[in-house]
Structure formats: structure tokens, C-alpha cells
Design brief:
transmembrane, mainly alpha, 70% helix, membrane, transmembrane helix, 3 helices
């Protein structure tokens, strides 16, 4: 059985768990999210996207 989840949902669950169980403050999570948003508008965005896709491919076991 294959379950497909968007990566943003998985990261949201991880952020919620970090806030709830690890005691990470909400403002720290917001700052990290904003940093990621601003980083996506730089020249590093294609490299980050390619690295994320490669990592997800390794986890899913789909190698090309």
C-alpha cells in the first residue's frame, strides 16, 4: 500500500511536534519558516530543491 503525503504536511507535523514535545517556542518556528521562505527566493533555491528531491527519492527508494 502506497501513501502519498505532501512534504509540507510532513514538515508541519515535525514543527508541531517540536513545539509541543521539545519545548521549541512558536516564534522560533516562525523565524525558521520565514528564513526558508526568503531563502527560496535566492540563487540557492534550485540547489535546495534538487537536494530535497534527491533525499525524498532515496527515502522512497526511487532511483533514476
Amino acid at each position: 500500500m502506497t501513501v502519498s503525503l505532501p512534504l509540507v504536511f510532513v514538515l508541519g507535523v515535525i514543527a508541531w511536534a517540536a513545539i509541543k514535545f521539545l519545548g521549541i517556542r512558536l516564534w522560533v518556528a516562525v523565524v525558521i519558516a520565514l528564513f526558508g521562505f526568503w531563502l527560496s527566493h535566492t540563487f540557492l533555491a534550485p540547489a535546495i530543491e534538487a537536494g530535497t528531491r534527491s533525499g525524498v527519492g532515496v527515502v522512497n527508494g526511487t532511483h533514476k
